[in-house]
Amino acid sequence: MGGAFIKGLHQSGGYSVTACDVDEAVLETISPYCDRTTTELSVAAESEVVVLALKPDLVGAILSDLELTADQTLLSIAAGVSTELLESKTEATVVRIMPNLAAEYGMMAAAVTESTVTDEIRAILDAVGEFVEVSESKMDIATAVNGSGPAFVFYLINAMAEAGVDGGLSPEDARTLAAQTFKGAAETVLQSDRSIEDLIDAVCSPKGTTIEGMDVLWDSDVEAEVGEAVAAAEERSKELAQDAADE
């Protein structure tokens, strides 16, 4: 996620990025998208905004060595780690976000804590996609919907592509058609004032092909299964929060 965020900021052209990691191989991979790379935390700590893109169990150890001032902002991508916990370990202004991998292409969907977000952070998030401001209590469900969501969508795209291959399309053509269909449908939802139910109706001509397929979906458990996947991801986010608090 950290690499995707860096690539998105690089693509936007408006930011100077320093990447810090103990793994020099990781730094080599992302160096084309950074102004500089370093293995020294003290160098990263010089930035106005420090992005914490770590596994939750590493946050405490890193923050104990990361000396930030009240004039700086700590932007945390660590899943499940609460703003309250982060604030107890740094003097910096803490803003918690949950982005997703599409940040790499400037098409990120992100949630950010409404009580702490600043205009500076809003500008950064605008540069790599769309975001919504939510309460701290909603960050776990946001993590499930937009943070874990891309994997769920990839799964569905693959299912549609495989159906196309089974029907005789080449794998390449089926992948393109399925992926672009999801992309176009998503943009339609974002651009239209109509409800998703109304958009479905707009595609479903009476006695046409779409309504035949929708009848299968309406009679299935797909909606419930997707809901269970989101709920499982949300529960794991809550578990990570508890694990971080117990560290």
Could you give a quick summary of the protein structure above?
This protein has helices spanning 2-12, 24-30, 41-44, 59-65, 83-87, 119-128, 139-147, 149-166, 171-191, 196-203, 209-218, 222-246; strands at 18-20, 36-38, 49-52, 73-76, 93-98, 108-113, 129-134.
**Termini separation:** 23 Å
Global Rg: 21 Å
- Identify the overall geometry: elongated
Q: Profile the largest sheet.
A: 5 strands, mixed
Number of contiguous helices: 12
Low-pLDDT segments, ≥5 res: none
- How many independent structural domains? 2
The CATH class of the largest domain, by name, is Alpha Beta
Protein structure class? alpha/beta
Family: Belongs to the pyrroline-5-carboxylate reductase family.
Catalytic activity: L-proline + NADP(+) = (S)-1-pyrroline-5-carboxylate + NADPH + 2 H(+); L-proline + NAD(+) = (S)-1-pyrroline-5-carboxylate + NADH + 2 H(+)
Protein name: Pyrroline-5-carboxylate reductase
GO molecular function, one term: pyrroline-5-carboxylate reductase activity
